[in-house]
Amino acid sequence: MNNDIKFTLESESIEALKVYSELLKKDTSTIVKEALQQYFENAEKSLLEKRLAEENSMTNLDFDEFWDEVEI
């Protein structure tokens, strides 16, 4: 399996990486790795929220409307 991925960064992104690398005293690879980890966490959270919203769309009643006419 080939683990190499080729991608291109715009010059603005490269310059920002260099600046933040110096400011944060971090290697540019570390910054990219951390940024990707944060992106994947946010994407996973978004997908979970979307799935929950789809599952909850089975009813258009809110909690009070659902239980309003139920006699216990």
Please tell me about this protein's structure:
The protein has 72 residues and is mainly alpha-helical. The protein has one domain. Helices cover 67% and strands 0% of the residues. It has 3 helices and no strands.
Portion in strands: under 5%
- Give the overall shape: elongated
Helical fraction: 55-70%
Specify Rg, calculated over alpha carbons.
23 Å
Which consecutive residue ranges, at least 5 long each, have pLDDT under 50? none
Which helices and strands, and how do they pair?
Elements: H1 11-24, H2 28-56, H3 63-67
Keywords:
72 residues; mainly alpha
Brief overview:
The protein has 72 residues and is mostly helical. The chain is 67% helix and 0% strand.
